[in-house]
Amino acid sequence: MPRTIVITGASDGIGAAAARQLHAAGETVVIVGRDPQKTGAVAAELGAASFVVDYGDLSQVRDLAAALLAAYPRIDVLANNAGGVFADRTVTRDGFELTFQVNHLGGFLLTNLLLDRLIESRAAVIQTSSAAAHRFSRFDIDDLQGERSYSASTAYGNGKLANILFTKELHHRFHDAGLSAVAFHPGAVATAFAAEAKGAWRFLYHNALAKRMLISTDKGGSRLTWLAEGTPGETWISGEYYADNRPARTARVASDPAVAERLWEESTRMVGL
Ligand SMILES: NC(=O)c1ccc[n+]([C@@H]2O[C@H](COP(=O)([O-])OP(=O)(O)OC[C@H]3O[C@@H](n4cnc5c(N)ncnc54)[C@H](OP(=O)(O)O)[C@@H]3O)[C@@H](O)[C@H]2O)c1
Hints:
Blueprint: E1 4-7, H1 13-24, E2 28-33, H2 36-46, E3 49-52, H3 58-71, E4 77-80, H4 98-113, H5 115-120, E5 124-128, H6 132-135, H7 152-174, E6 180-185, H8 199-205, H9 210-213, H10 217-229, E7 241-243, E8 246-247, H11 257-271
Parallel strand pairs: 1-2, 1-4, 2-3, 4-5, 5-6, 6-7
Antiparallel strand pairs: 7-8
Helix pairs in contact: 1-10, 3-4, 4-7, 7-11
The protein binds NADP nicotinamide-adenine-dinucleotide phosphate.
């Protein structure tokens, strides 16, 4: 029986590659993207349902959750994959720093609004995090909006660290109820990533050599596919962070349960749950 696999950020890059692989494996994939044309094109190619959302506007995340709940009596996998690195500090209409909102708050809100359905379905929630959580984060639970200190790299590293802390806390709160949670680094993947950034980030991903230095979108997508197709407790461990299909090390603060709990509480307050 095909499972229902909802993938955000599936209009391009790693998410689209994973959607193609999971569709080929016989799963029912649900394509969620930001750009209506790109999202529609991937969905049409796969004969899949699609939804459009911009995580820069949390009201759109609430609408997406309502539409998914109306459409799917089961959700077996939720892949919170939408994300990216941006340029100068920008504040969204919701009042939050854009990188934090797109990489963390959007997926946090969506997951919480779908939580009962996910638990009933004994679902897996997968976060596309990054090695940037280790390399670039300077996580300050009292400065989640980068008001005291901001750089695009730090904001991105902090957002990706938040993905891992969210995974740990989801596991802690809901694994006994049947939910599993995992975060992963897909590798340095040749995608449209960093197209909205400036300087080194943009250059690294968008220069003549990039395609040769970076791994393919199919390879990056295969790491998401491996988790979506896997069995928690057998092929992967709930609450863990993976790279290259193996448990991996990340920033030490990611293992601090007090920080994970505080991030959950702060995020809950921010999104008005
Ligand atoms: N590429 C890498 O080397 C790398 C490494 C580590 C982690 N990651 C992570 O992998 C994930 C996928 O990135 P990618 O490399 O596949 O990049 P990508 O090709 O740029 O894909 C990003 C996806 O996220 C969506 N997205 C971006 N901003 C959004 C917003 N405001 N609201 C809703 N959706 C939004 C995009 O939608 P549209 O295209 O429709 O605008 C697209 O589907 C991201 O979380 C990224 O941080 C990537």
